[in-house]
Write a structure and sequence with these properties.
single chain; alpha+beta; Immunoglobulin-like; 6-stranded mixed sheet; disordered N terminus
């Protein structure tokens, strides 16, 4: 009886040995943290041979195999729905026991047999964004020489590309704007569904810009202006503003799924500007102070402009300044004229 059991056990091992030797498997490893790359490198436009190393597949087996891969994109970052943006299949390659295939081997060491971009709209959206954003799912399948699936693996890809920012381009910080119309313009935020504008009067110079924006009743109270990047602030006021006032302004983009769930806001820095009116005492005071400063520096050989009344902004050492800062500078320069090297008037 013991001899019979031994013979049966040996027979089972002999019968299973070919299956153990020919077992095929594939695993995938993402090289983290992923580098900051343009979308074109990730989209396999050049079969990834020119892209930095981002992942590799570890294959076990013996014989001729193929790889089929796909990159899926979840635009909202939730991973609930992926759209294939690239699919590829390699030509046959040989594995003797084990082999590691890096993404930059595809198209170079291992020729690509065919590629496809199933969703051109998704490709265009990614190209417009410039860098991989959202969530990506990379799937690889190990095929035999006839194209039958033997094993598969997938991984989520998360890139270290920097987050988007929102910058107000107009009006410029500390500039003087006509009271009748102030055109605000800001950078587009990719994926934003709308933009919210907030503004208020800064009545006390000791207030921070944040404090002024949140103080009392805003002059523009979280106004949703839709999916546009420019608006005339005069048309969305909650109440009238007046010449001579200092206004603080912030724009926020509403981005669905920015934080992974629901809608989130991406806000600009708060800027300030002044309302301008040729007949206003504030502007007259400003022009008088500028003229007084120039008159006090009589030792300088400069050509003065004929009219100093039309002032849009004041810069000192390339930085915008307000009226109080200008007056402090004027007092210093009056008492220290040797500190002035040159005065330049610009019409830009």
């Amino acid at each position: 009886m013991k001899r019979l059991k031994l013979i049966v056990s040996t027979l089972v091992v002999i019968l299973c040995l070919p299956l153990m030797i020919n077992a095929q498997n594939i695993t995938m490893t993402v090289i983290e943290p992923l580098p900051e790359i343009p979308f074109a490198a990730f989209a396999m436009a050049n079969s990834l041979e020119g892209a930095p190393r981002m992942f590799y597949a570890s294959i076990t087996g013996n014989g001729e195999y193929k790889l089929r891969g796909s990159a899926g994109w979840s635009s909202d970052g939730t991973g609930s729905n992926y759209t294939d943006i690239f699919v590829f299949t390699t030509e046959n390659f040989t594995v003797n026991g084990s082999r590691t295939v890096y993404n930059d081997d595809l198209g170079s060491k291992i020729p690509i047999l065919e590629t496809d971009t199933p969703d051109d709209d998704a490709i265009e959206e990614n190209i417009r964004r410039g860098k991989p954003t959202g969530r990506y799912l990379l799937t690889v399948q190990l095929l035999d020489a006839s194209g039958n699936v033997l094993a598969s693996a997938d991984k989520d890809l998360v890139f270290t590309n920097p987050a988007q920012t929102l910058i107000i381009r107009s009006p410029e910080t500390a500039s003087f704007q006509g009271v009748g119309a102030v055109i605000a313009e800001w950078d587009e935020v990719i994926g934003a569904s709308s933009y919210i504008v907030r503004a208020n009067v800064r009545s006390n110079p000791s207030q921070s810009l944040e404090e002024a924006l949140d103080f009392g009743s805003p002059i523009i109270d979280s106004r949703d202006v839709g999916n546009t990047t420019t608006v005339n602030l005069r048309t969305i006021l909650s109440r009238e503003w007046a010449p001579g006032q200092e206004i603080v302004l912030q724009v926020s983009a509403v981005v669905p799924g920015l934080s992974g769930t629901g809608d989130s806001e991406l806000s600009s820095e708060i800027i300030n500007f002044y309302l301008y009116d040729p007949a206003n005492q504030f502007t007259n005071q400003l022009s008088s102070n500028v003229q007084a400063l120039v008159d006090a520096l009589t030792d300088l050989d400069i050509n003065l402009p004929e009219n100093l009344g039309n002032i849009e902004s004041i810069m000192i050492d390339g930085m915008p300044v307000n009226l109080a800062q200008l007056e402090q500078t004027m007092i210093y320069l009056k008492t220290n004229p040797d500190a002035v090297v040159n005065i330049k008037f610009s019409n830009d």
